[in-house]
Here is the input.
Amino acid sequence: MASELPSNAHVSQHPCLRAKLAQLRSQSTNAREVKSLIHDISLIAGCEALGQALQATPTRKDTSPLGYDYGVDTLVPSKVSIMPILRSGLGMVDALQTLLPEPVPVHHLGLFRDKTTMTAVEYYNNLPYHRTSQSSAAAEGPSDLAILVDPVVATGATACAAIDTLKEWSVKKIIMICVICSKPGLQRAAELWPEGVEIWAGGMDETCDDMGMIKPGLGDVGDRLFLTIGK
Here is the structure.
């Protein structure tokens, strides 16, 4: 199955992740458990993704409690940001912040899929396009690495819209991490900008239904996380 995917599309085979994904699929899993499982799966998938996207480089010396010198590694690239797609992407942010050794900016993208046309509609974007402060210009420009997070890549329309937005922002590289995807959605998103995007999925199902929902999938993750009833 993996050989049929684009080279920049990856589906985890981690046994712990696969077991947790099976738990997450169940309709009997309550909101608190959904939140915990999304976090754990994001942590495992994030380890796999960032292990390929980042490098550790010794940059300075420090001293241990016993008085010995040691080299301190820093991450390359250093200009990293996290981009959750609202609203369900918020459930993945804490896991990625836990993985990264230093705080990074978190920029939010609000996108929803029109259920008639199956196209993505942007309703919120707080990327710092228009900041002018010179004192913090380095932190406000486009990231060298954008970590895009959304639990579900179904048709791929929302993922592609987010990738286009980040390309417009002039990011150099995008790592997208999702909990689950459909095979067509993963292929569509991976093929949009193959030289600039790597997509890492916790699991993959073959198809979507007529409503654009993955089968068997996870249902509406936002509704499950926040105990709401979708439109």
